[in-house]
Design goal:
The protein has about 450 residues and is an alpha/beta fold. It has two domains: about 180 residues, Glutaconate Coenzyme A-transferase (3-Layer(aba) Sandwich), CATH 3.40.1080.10; about 240 residues, 3-Layer(aba) Sandwich (Glutaconate Coenzyme A-transferase), CATH 3.40.1080. Helix content is about 30%, strand content about 20%. The chain has 16 helices and 26 strands. The strands form seven sheets. Strands 15-13-11-10-16-21-25-26 form an eight-stranded mixed beta sheet, with helices on both faces. A seven-stranded parallel beta sheet has the order 4-3-2-1-5-7-9, with helices on both faces. Strands 18-17-24 form a three-stranded mixed beta sheet, with helices on one face. Helix 3 links the parallel strand 1 and strand 2. Helix 8 crosses helix 9, helix 9 packs parallel to helix 10 and helix 15 packs antiparallel against helix 16. The longest helix is centred in the middle third of the chain and has 11 residues. It is globular and about 80 Å long. The N and C termini lie far apart (about 70 Å).
């Protein structure tokens, strides 16, 4: 290693307890995202709860239970925030130990750089070990790590030899000259998440979507069982020469590549590359993305830009929802006052796919859910929470009872279409609700 780089490295090494002393009362501290939570630094910072006050933490989808929230549920020392709730975040939020930051995922770098988000006083970012050129790689969460480190007053990297090196288009690394402190964490594998369980309803929904996918399509798959079910069906199909431009790299994409289904041959942007901004899945997936030149990680303002998405033809976007109402409004992140996840990049890809020549955006949901032993419809008269995708953006909606396109439809046509794919046990009540709202024609009947 070149002498100048090594000298910088040696001068910036700190223990985790020394490094977190950079955090002062009143600071904003930004963590890296998803499975890249800086667990060593987080634990050390939590140990300072008795000497700190009003420190604000910001993260996105913290998959590890964050210790600063666990150790201080009353929020005297730390106030924990997330722009996309994980299961752990939901649990903290339920007990008042976490707060949600609404955000369109693609806007996050812009928000930071333009001052619409609080400036990070301290950035704590998990990375690979430094390479011979003085670069630390952001691993599986490129996301908006670069923007965080650019805007932070102090940058602390937590290196871990278990982090895969994710090759990219740009902004996937930080140079040692931009780092203030380095903490060498014990080698540990990234948190692996199992492949989502696929239900019979998921398989039926996936079948409806598969009918619309053609050779050369460019895929985006969201989190959950339905997108993975689509991936499994494609793997068994005759489809070929598919592309990938997705915010998330999941196991389904790895499986499709291994089967020869993904080549990227017909992509316009990043031809032959599998483009993503974060990866989350099994240990096999992390091995797949490690130093793999076919994969290209980019910051989220690139992957989730509607313009960049739409430059590829035949984009097929597949995401989940929790409710759709008779106006075509889509709720994907919350029910009533309960925050479940976040809007994330769903809206980005709904718009991007619609702008793509031949593109389609599918919002998928099972027709019912169970609450306290009672079965209720997910097609509802009015969204019972937060609208993630407004009705004017809605494209295809799919349940196990069919798929409908809402683009260009009148209010009564939207209501009729959605009722036609609701569970049969709830259709009569939904018709009555549509009639009461004045969005049902007397001559119509499902």
């Amino acid at each position: 290693m070149r002498t100048a780089i090594w000298d910088q490295y040696r001068n910036k090494i700190r223990t985790e307890r020394e490094a977190v002393k950079a955090v002062k009362s009143g600071d904003w501290v930004y963590y890296s995202h998803f499975v890249m939570t800086p667990v060593t630094l987080d634990k050390a910072l939590a140990e300072r709860k008795d000497v700190l006050r009003d420190v604000k933490i910001s993260v996105s989808n913290g998959m590890h239970p964050v210790q600063v929230a666990a150790c201080d549920p009353e929020g005297k020392a730390f106030t924990y925030h997330s722009t996309f709730y994980s299961a752990s975040d939901r649990n903290f939020g339920k007990h008042g130990a976490a707060f949600f930051i609404p955000a369109n995922y693609h806007e996050q770098p812009w928000r930071l750089r333009q001052g619409f988000a609080p400036r990070p006083n301290v950035a704590m970012i998990k990375t690979t070990s430094m390479d011979k050129n003085g670069l630390f790689n952001f691993g599986t969460s490129c996301s908006y790590a670069k923007a965080i480190t650019e805007m932070a007053d102090i940058v602390i990297v937590e290196t871990n030899e278990g982090v895969p090196k994710c090759l990219g288009g740009h902004s996937e690394n930080i140079h040692i000259s931009d780092v203030d402190y380095i903490v060498e964490a014990p080698k540990a594998p990234l948190l692996a998440t199992p492949k989502p369980r696929v239900s019979p309803e998921d398989e039926k929904i996936a079948q409806y979507i598969l009918e619309e996918i053609h050779d050369g399509a460019c895929l985006q798959l969201g989190i959950g069982g339905i997108p993975n079910a689509v991936g499994s069906l494609i793997a068994e199909s005759d489809l070929k020469d598919l592309g990938m431009h997705s915010e998330m790299m999941c196991d389904a994409f790895m499986d499709l590549y291994d089967r020869g289904k993904i080549t990227g041959r017909y992509k316009y942007t990043n031809k032959n590359k599998m483009v993503y901004t974060f990866a989350m899945g099994t240990a096999d997936l992390y091995e797949f993305v490690d130093d793999n030149p076919v994969c290209a990680t980019f910051p989220v303002d690139y992957t989730n830009s509607a313009e960049n998405i739409s430059r590829n033809e035949n984009v097929v976007s597949i995401n989940n929802a929790v409710q759709v109402d008779l106006y075509g409004q889509i709720a994907s992140e919350a029910i009533d006052d309960k925050q479940i996840s976040g809007s994330g990049g769903q809206g980005d890809f709904v718009v991007g796919a619609a702008k793509s020549r031949g593109g389609m955006a599918f919002i998928c949901l099972k027709s019912t859910r169970e609450i306290g032993g009672r079965v209720v419809s997910r097609i509802v008269p009015d969204v019972e929470g937060i609208v993630s995708v407004p009705r004017a953006w809605a494209f295809y909606v799919v349940t196990e009872y069919g798929k409908v396109c809402l683009k260009g439809k009148t209010t009564w046509q939207i209501a009729e279409s959605l009722i036609s794919i609701a569970h049969p046990d709830f259709r009569e009540d939904l018709i009555k609700a549509a009639q009461a709202k004045g969005i049902w024609r007397r001559s119509n009947r499902i």
